Amino acid sequence: MPATVVLGTQWGDEGKGKVTDLLGAEMDAVVRYQGGHNAGHTIVVEGESFALQLLPSGILYDTVTPVIGNGVVIDPSVLLAEIEAVEKRGVSTEKLIVSGSAHMIMPYHLELDRMTERFLGKNKLGTTKRGIGPAYADKASRIGLRIQDLLDEKIFIQKLEVVLKEKNAILAKVYNRLPISLDQVVSDYLGKYAPKISPMIADTVGFLQQSYANNKNILLEGAQATFLDLDHGTYPFVTSSNPTAGGACTGSGLGPRQIDAVIGVAKAYLTRVGSGPFPTELTDEVGDLLVDRGHEYGTNTGRRRRTGWFDLVLLGQAARINSLSELAITKLDVLDPLESVKVCVAYELDGDRFDTMPYHQSTFHKVKPVYEELPGWQCDTTHITESDKLPKEARELIALIEERSSVHVGYVGTGPGRDQLVRM
Hints:
single chain, alpha/beta, 10-stranded mixed β-sheet, 4-stranded mixed β-sheet, 33% helix, 21% strand
């Protein structure tokens, strides 16, 4: 398996970190290809929990080269803090390499992100206010500063002077905020961050292409998920990058024909953080149960996630967009106590039925789910590691997912631990 992509098929928080960690044992390199520290992966190893933001999940294997690709936006202070935190817990980061072409999150990105959300009021997007969107906007506007600029003081200061004129004018005249100090930014980025980050900076595209040529196993790890994708998600309630399979190529430098497998991860129910449409959302006691049993609070923000029933219409769209070759269904155990489990198989609106996701946002915001109700299994699945030991009712749910998505379910998660997984 020279190159494999693992990505989310819902609105994020599907348990991609666990699947990446599982596959990491077989890999030579694990690559984060987009997003920033607005995404979090939680991995539980021998009862110990690791909440990763920027570091690839493969960091926990000393046989893996962890790679932060060119498609990621990096806050240097956050990266260094995360490195320090995992090293204190005995995890080595000496093999980590960072793309020189990855863009940096700057102090003005953080300030603009906070101010923009505040001024949007009730129309806010629900961002994490980590500067991710403004950093990607500057990348598209061709005024961004990249990690490689830390290696050239003259270029760094020249670029910063140009961009600060614009950003400080906006902060002062639009938001009535104090200007960002050029001297302070230079002191932090060149004085504090550059000496520590410089040894990690590398030609990651060259490294990955050489690894591929040498038949090394490469895992490409997406942050967020399909329906937070800038192009294919529920716009404008999306992230600022492309978590879909196409983004794996753009954000890593590997080509489409070098990708051998695309594994989609989906929870056995659905969650969403922040604003945006959610046809199967539950606001009753079942929704509360899913929050409590699934510990549905953001890894980074601590925000309570919205919960709902599994949506096969969304999954079908994700399967097509990403050319999924396999599925991993996580958190099956969260459904253990339920008498029955509902699955959305279509949408309805004004007498019309939608078996695929409607393209128009106004329609999608208004649709009502059409459910198929399955019997629950009402027993503990957290100890199960063999597929034939799963309750018949749980296997029926998996079979329905496979049938309607036309994608084989290869893995089923039955708890947060590394070993709580069933290979199907």
